[in-house]
Design goal:
The chain has about 80 residues and is mainly α. It has 1 helix and no strands. The termini are far apart.
Length: about 80
């Protein structure tokens, strides 16, 4: 009888340990998922900022190109 009750007590303790580990791992999973989502959002914001910077640079280069083409056209016209 004593052996059975000791075994039951031991199994109950093992169940409690497993439950606490399961709770801890569930919380770790939640934290990890939350961190990954925040990192994705942060990367998305950084990429959006970079995209806007690059678009601005392209617009500036297009204006410079248009000015240079206009200068070239005027130079050709003046030679004729």
């Amino acid at each position: 009888m004593y052996v059975n009750s000791a075994k039951v007590h031991q199994l109950n303790e093992a169940i409690e340990i497993a439950r606490s580990k399961l709770e801890e791992e569930s919380m770790n999973e939640f934290v990890y998922t939350h961190m990954v989502e925040r990192m994705k959002k942060k990367d998305q914001i950084a990429l959006e900022i970079k995209r806007k910077e690059l678009e601005g640079a392209v617009r500036k280069k297009e204006l410079i190109l248009a000015d240079e083409n206009e200068k070239k056209r005027r130079a050709k016209e003046s030679q004729l």
